[in-house]
Amino acid sequence: MTEPNQAIPIRVRPEEPGDHDRVRAIETAAFGQEAEARLVDRLRGRVSPEVSLVALTAEEAGDEIVGHIYFSPVRVGASRKLAMALGPVAVDPVCQKQSIGSELCRRGLEECRALGHPVVFVLGHPEYYPRFGFEPASAHGLYYKNEHFAPAFFVAVLEAGALAGYSGEVEYDPAFDET
Ligand SMILES: CC(C)(COP(=O)(O)OP(=O)(O)OC[C@H]1O[C@@H](n2cnc3c(N)ncnc32)[C@H](O)[C@@H]1OP(=O)(O)O)[C@@H](O)C(=O)NCCC(=O)NCCS
């Protein structure tokens, strides 16, 4: 049986240059590989707009970063309308299941909306993302690469009517296809 999530006090702030090494370490530990850390390194500071947030816990020895979330721009359909894509999101494995990932998702989505980007996509776990308002993108005629990805491809519409004019393929930055 799964233990219920116990939220621990955290604060969330924008990532700073001094955070990069710790963020790399968390991405690598959470995913068990370096691909996601390298992806963030390729995108960070090169794409615009971007949203990069870290979650910190208050430790005796000082604040410690325990989570990171990143959003980058995508282009949609023939008209190449701008939207955002969530990913990656990672929480230090020793701190998971304490609502840190949820807080990062919620705060990140708020930030995207505040920046004027109320359409956000994610390619990810079907059990995790619907709780933040994500719904199947295929229901709106939106897809990533091909139908194979449809069960894991979601869109969050953060303002009523924001999806008007969006249809077709959602193109991520070419950095997502590099290894
Ligand atoms: C996914 C992740 C960011 C969630 O962070 P977290 O702080 O543990 O999440 P929360 O405590 O807010 O929520 C926990 C919930 O996430 C679910 N969850 C965690 N990992 C999951 C996964 N791989 N697939 C589906 N659900 C997952 C848990 O089952 C739990 O569900 P419940 O609330 O119904 O019990 C974290 O587990 C992580 O870093 N995982 C490895 C990297 C990863 O897979 N990133 C997402 C890529 S799409």
Mean pLDDT: 94
Strand content: 25-35%
Total DSSP E strands: 9
How many structurally independent domains? 1
| Overall morphology | globular
Give me the number of helical elements: 3
State the helicity in percent bands: 10-25%
Cα-based radius of gyration, to the nearest Å: 16 Å
Q: Hetero groups bound?
A: coenzyme A
For the record, what CATH class applies?
Answer: Alpha Beta
Considering the protein shown, what is the CATH homologous superfamily?
Gcn5-related N-acetyltransferase (GNAT)
Biggest sheet architecture: 9 strands, mixed
Second rung of CATH, namely the architecture:
3-Layer(aba) Sandwich
Q: How far apart lie the N and C ends?
A: 37 Å
Q: Enumerate the spans where pLDDT stays under 50 for 5 or more consecutive residues.
A: none
In short:
The chain is α+β, with helices and mostly antiparallel strands and 179 residues long.
Description:
It is a single chain. It is globular, with a radius of gyration of 16 Å. Helix 1 (20-31) runs antiparallel to helix 2. Strands 1, 2, 3, 4, 5, 6, 7, 8 and 9 form a 9-stranded mixed β-sheet that branches. The protein has a single domain (11-177), classed as Aminopeptidase (3-Layer(aba) Sandwich). By secondary structure, the chain is α+β, with helices and mostly antiparallel strands. The N and C termini lie far apart (37 Å). The model has no long low-confidence stretch (mean pLDDT 94). It has helices at residues 20-31, 35-43, 100-114, and strands at 11-14, 51-59, 62-76, 81-91, 119-123, 135-136, 142-143, 153-157, 168-171. The chain contains 3 helices and 9 strands. The structure holds coenzyme A. Coenzyme A binds at residues 2, 5, 30-31, 88-91, 96-102, 124-125, 127-128.
